[in-house]
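Bench log. Compound arrived from synthesis this morning; before running ITC I wanted a structural hypothesis for how adenosine-5-diphosphoribose sits in the protein. Inputs:
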Amino acid sequence: MKKYLFLTGAGISAESGIRTFRDSGGLWEDHKVEDVASPLGFRKDPQKVWKFYKERYHQSLSVEPNPAHYALKKLEDHIGDRFHLITQNVDGLHIRAGSNRVLEMHGSLNRCFCSNCKARYQMQEIDLQADIPICNKCGSQLRPDIVWFGEIPYFLYEIEEHLKKCDVFVVIGTSGTVYPAAGFVMTAKLFGAHTIAINLDRPDNFSFIDEFHQGKSGELIPVYIERIMESG
Ligand code: APR
Ligand code: ZN
């Protein structure tokens, strides 16, 4: 019985109405990464960074998971511990679709933590009216629980273990440009996995992809999941 490992990117949430980063109209067209997605940017202008993430947080609450999120949840229920999901997304839509076995390697818009004492908070616990929310425990500035450029993503050891053990590694809705996530397909292939990409455009790490399905994940994923469930 095959072990399936999935990696998702912004493309899987596009049909829910959430902007991707590098497509036309993407987030990085009208925001400078170094200003809003780097530790230095936060030190320089924490209010600007909080404004960027509060907007994205509130927008993420106003949209719904789409058929691709629900199809992955359905497969998780069907095959249990043979299923693992890594997401680069911070929108929380996999969890809202009911997925439990999901590793949010870039953090989540739904959480923040204290830059001093590291106390962790859910966004709905804090006063988002404040320009820069403050820690209840030590009074320091809170920061979004987002892994910024130059920071180490979450769960890398666990992810490495899954990459070594999976039989099929499926990459969905990601441009394959940002490491370490963009390098996962190479590791999986090195350890013998069959690699599949389901994406609107050809991803940058295409040379490590055995099977490429071009199109919208909201349309292709439910069909692909049904096929896996029939074949076992
Ligand atoms: N269905 C499938 N794929 C889609 C869809 C869709 N409906 N819409 C867009 N795509 C594809 C695009 O073709 C593109 O290859 O999704 C990909 C989105 O790429 P990016 O915008 O680069 O997003 P992502 O790969 O997730 O970015 C990785 O970069 O900025 C950082 O931390 C951020 O997690 C993010 C990381
Ligand atoms: Zn604190």
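What the model suggests: The chain is about 35% helix and 20% strand. The domain at 19-62+111-146 is CATH 3.30.1600.10 (SIR2/SIRT2 'Small Domain').
ITC booked for Thursday regardless.
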